[in-house]
Every structure is written in C-alpha cells, then in structure tokens.
Amino acid sequence: MRKTFLYQINVTRDCNLRCTHCYISSDVKKASGKMEGNSFLKIVDGIAEHMEKIGYEHAEIHVIGGEPTMLGLPFFEENLPEARRRLEGHDFSFELIMVSNLLNKDIVDISRHFDRINTSWEPITRFPKKKLEEFWQNNVTTLQDAGIDVGITTAVTKQVIEMGADAILEHHYSKGIKQIHFGFFIPSGDGLTNINDIFPPFIETSRFMMQVADWYFARRDADPDLWVNPPESMLAAIESGEPLDDIVCPIIAGSMDIDWDGKTATCLEAGGETDAQWLGNVLKTSISDVASSPEFRKEVRKAMRPNEHCMTCDEYIVCKSGCGVNFKFWDPEKDEDCPGFKAFIKDMRSRHQGGLRPRYTEYRGKVAF
C-alpha cells in the first residue's frame, strides 16, 4: 500500500445545494468566502514542500467545498495547469481530484483539469427536486462520454437504507457508473441538525454494507471495471492486515483540511461546524509548520488513540475505532453494533476465510463527501 497523505482544499464552503445530511452547517456555507488563485498556488507549493519533508509516496489532493465549481471556469483554467506544473518533478506521485455536485454548466471544461472527479448521490436528502437529479445524471453521462473518470459516493442515511442496496446499485450500474463508494454517515453540520431523520443505527448500516457486498461480489469477476467500496477495500484490508480509511479515520494515515482562507484542521468534518477548532493557518505560515505544530500533532495523537471499548476487540486492527465523531452517539449497552461496524467486518472476514480475495494490491482512492 502506498503511503498517502490526503490534502483537502476547500476553495469555498458555500454551495448551491442545502443537503439535509451535509456535514457542513448552512450557516458556515452562508458566511464563506472564496479562495484566491494566489492562495491556492501557495497551498500547492506548501504541499510539495510538506511531501518532500515527510517522505510519503503519494499526495491525494481534493479540491472540494462546499461546491468548488462556484468559483467559475476561469479559476480552474488559470490555476490548475500551474498547480500541476508545480507538483511535477518531485519524489512523490499525486492526484488532483475534484469533489463536486456536478450542477455547473461548465462541468466538462472544469473537469478536464483533474485526474478524477468524485460526486455524490443520495435519495431525498440531496435531490429534493427531480429536475436537479436529472441535470446531475446528464452531466455524469456527459463526463463519461468525454472520457473523464467519475466516481460516486453515497452517504448511508436512513433514506439510503430504505431504498435498498440492490436498487441503488442497479440504478447506478444501469447508467454506466462503475466506481461506487458508500460512506458511513457522520452526524455534524446540517446532518447533526437533522440527525433524527437521517442517522441509522450502526447495525443497520452494517447490514446494508453486507447487502452491497452480496451484489458486488456476484458481479465483480464478470466486469473488470466495476469497483464498489468498502467491500473491495475492506477485503484488501483483511488480506494485508493494514487498515484502509473507508472506515479508519484518515487522520491516522495523514490528512489535512484547509479552509478557503487558509485556516486548517486535521479532518474534513471539523471545518463544517460554526465553532470549528482551527489548528493554524497555512497561508500565514506553511503546511509544514502547521502539521508539525503541537496543536496539530495533539489532534493526530488523539485520532490514533483507541476508544477504551475497542482495546480488547479482535477487529481493532482493521477499523482502528472508526470515526471518533460517531462514538459520541454510541451506547455500548444498547447498540447491537459499534461505530467501527464490526458486524460488517466480521462478514467480510468470513468471506475472506471462505477463499474470497481482493482484486488489487493498491488501494484505489480515498473517501469523499
């Protein structure tokens, strides 16, 4: 597995949608500004410097929001080619990935500047109006026809579980979508405000993931282009004994969340709250300075520390306690499963013991919101 550091550059927190499951608060979106081009390029230079210092093999750089395309086509035309030039020629590989809702009329021209496009789809909580979903679907198809690599992430909400794994996967697959990821819902921002309507019990999420695995492994061998995570990546984690961040907090492997004005946190979720605890500003100092600061390193150590209930768990090596945010909503006396989704891990381990093996040796991509 490549040693990957995840940099998430929120070029704006504002968005042209108000998804009720979103980890960003609507108040944060409303108050957000937009990143200047020179600030973006300074951050890119900082990434190159930081990667050289830490000796990681790969930089995964997410240009994200909010909705990044709200900065307009000229921002990407002026800054992305230069960013790529500044990242080339170093002793690390990199990917420039945009995370977008694909509702911009210039989406094809913007997307050509990236190595990969990640988008999201959820029933009801993302697309309350059918016309929005139709516009999104048309843009997905247009990007595919243009030869642009598109992957889809779905947050596992109550509405997703109610629709069912088979229905969702068949819906995507029938549209030619073959890179599919299901992310575990994290209650923060607007998602926290609407938690009672959206947040499923942990055991229901695990059962949904098992259904996803059933669908995927029944089709995987017949279609070499089909990738569905976390079943595939979880199988790889069990095979290698090395956890992957489909469940594991990405802070452990290495991540940094940079806001539009340079303020920085360790994880994506942290910056979505109105009371976000920032750990420095990479535009006032540098990425390396913030990453090596006592405040930042303290948060990394906190993420690496196992929850007390997990220290004797036989699956801790795979999940590393999962997302720390979800532990705030876990009752070990009442809940049938845990924030590490042990039931899902056990199911995947049983499949592995039965002879099922991962199809690749290098993890393909990280989680996106």
Q: Could you characterize what this model shows?
A:
The chain is an alpha/beta fold. The chain has a single domain, classed as Alpha-Beta Barrel (TIM Barrel), CATH 3.20.20.70. Helices cover 41% and strands 13% of the residues. The chain is built from 17 helices and nine strands. A nine-stranded mixed beta sheet has the order 7-6-5-4-3-2-1-8-9. The longest helix has 18 residues, at 37-54. It starts with a strand and ends in a 16-residue tail after the last helix. Residues 363-369 have low confidence and may be disordered.
Topology:
Blueprint: E1 4-10, H1 26-31, H2 37-54, E2 58-64, H3 73-87, E3 93-99, H4 107-111, E4 116-120, H5 130-145, E5 150-156, H6 158-163, H7 165-174, E6 179-184, H8 190-193, H9 195-198, H10 202-219, E7 227-229, H11 231-240, H12 250-253, E8 255-258, E9 264-265, H13 287-291, H14 294-304, H15 316-319, H16 324-327, H17 342-353
Parallel strand pairs: 1-2, 1-8, 2-3, 3-4, 4-5, 5-6, 6-7
Antiparallel strand pairs: 8-9
Mean pLDDT: 92
The largest sheet, given as strand count, sense and whether it forms a barrel, is:
9 strands, mixed
Strand content: 5-15%
End-to-end distance: 23 Å
Tally of strands: 9
Gyration radius, rounded: 19 Å
Low-confidence stretches: 363-369
CATH superfamily: Aldolase class I
Question: Helical segment tally?
Answer: 17
Can you tell me the CATH architecture?
A: Alpha-Beta Barrel
- Give the strand order of the largest sheet, numbering strands 1, 2, ... along the chain: 7-6-5-4-3-2-1-8-9
What's the domain count?
1
Helix and strand pattern: EHHEHEHEHEHHEHHHEHHEEHHHHH
Structural classification? alpha/beta
Percent of residues in helices:
40-55%
The coarse silhouette is globular
Please name the CATH topology: TIM Barrel
CATH class: Alpha Beta
Protein name: Radical SAM additional 4Fe4S-binding SPASM domain-containing protein
InterPro entries: 4Fe4S-binding_SPASM_dom (IPR023885), Aldolase_TIM (IPR013785), Radical_SAM_PqqE_MftC-like (IPR050377), rSAM (IPR007197), rSAM_sf (IPR058240)
Organism: Thalassospira xiamenensis
Domain Radical SAM core: 1-221
